[in-house]
Design brief:
It is a single chain. The protein is mainly α and about 130 residues long. It has one domain. It is built from five helices and no strands. The protein has helices spanning about 1-25, 35-45, 50-65, 70-90, 95-110. Helix 1 (about 1-25) runs antiparallel to helix 3 and helix 1 crosses helix 5. It is globular.
Length: about 130
Amino acid sequence: MKIVVLIARILLGLVFLVFGLNKIVPFIPSTMPPGLAGQFMGALYTSKYLIFVGLCEAASGLLLLSGRYIPLALVIVGPVIVNILLVGLLLTHTALASGIVVTILWFLVYWRVRSAFSGVFQQRVPE
């Protein structure tokens, strides 16, 4: 299981590092999706919001690849994955497959470091 988690962590790190850097400095050619998804992406591009998302993705990718602060990287990239899934479900179904893949990778890595999140699932904070 350790090897599976290591491979998942490296793949997740590479995905978010490459595509995060691509949001900051575009080097992979892409086209705007049609319809509502294109309008949504256009708004994110023109407002420069995607630069912040790219920075979060690239930072998480670096942390995952380095093997340090893995729980922090999972927390930073978690909302990005939720947005990938929501865009895939609600706007364009082409993003759904990649969202499912990164979600599975995220859960594999999470399962290995789940003890770091134990305090989050407490009903009450001890006083």
